[in-house]
Amino acid sequence: MAETRTMLPMIHQFQDAYGVEDVTVVADAGMFSAGNKAAIIESGLHYILGVKFTDVPYPVALWRRNNPGQDYTDQQIWTYADRTGRGPNGVPHSLTYYQYSWDRARRTLKGIDEQVAKAEKAVAGKLPVKRNRFVDLKAPNKQVNWSLVTKNKALAGLKGYETSRVDLPAEQVIHAYRQLLKIEKAFRMSKSDLKARPIYHHKRESIDAHLSVVMAAMAVGHLLEERSGLSLKRLVRTLKKYRTFEVQIAGQLIHAASPVPPEISELIERIHAG
């Protein structure tokens, strides 16, 4: 409940400072309760939210019934319109898009198979029963919950996105939500690598200075990724093997450097290109 008490005032301040009228809040499902979503709507803002579901969504299930034996195609999208609240001319107040991703399904199914293998070992007494959702402890004898395994596999690859932006195509809504991955990556970088936490400072000037340095470092990091085409972690791992150094020989200071292969020279040139 605390998000809207801090988030809404910050958004309104941003709107006033930069003259922005049309704002869409993008967040995952865990951040928004029904009350928070209502507060966003009452404030005249739009939203794009990730959707949680425990069963195959209705439009997907309907498609399955109408196309028996047919597999999903990669990036296939289904649309569900909220019929409980419609605006003028029958325009729905919100739309929910469900998309299937082959790569997401592959990763999910791999994770399920790994958890099932651990569950079977736990049931056989070869591993202690820790947190494994596929172990049924309510049965007379602990056993693998195969019905839950089947249910989770049926959901593999599916992701839902709910939005009040009924004027945007599904692809644009989904793309906007996926930008959260970049934001989350930036937060992880700022909190861990750059230690962007005010607890390290006590005075306002120190906090402002520290966060300014952090933001500048993040900007440099994003620029390096954009120009090199590599992740920052991979870029650092690649370049840290090549160093310049100074050697003192018989009173003479000699500047030397590790030999740089052609592909690394090309990478450095891409970074320096403005």
UniProtKB/TrEMBL annotation:
Residues 2-217 form the Transposase IS4-like domain. GO terms for biological process: DNA transposition. This is Transposase DDE domain protein. One of its GO terms (molecular function) is transposase activity. Coiled coil: none annotated. It comes from Corynebacterium comes.
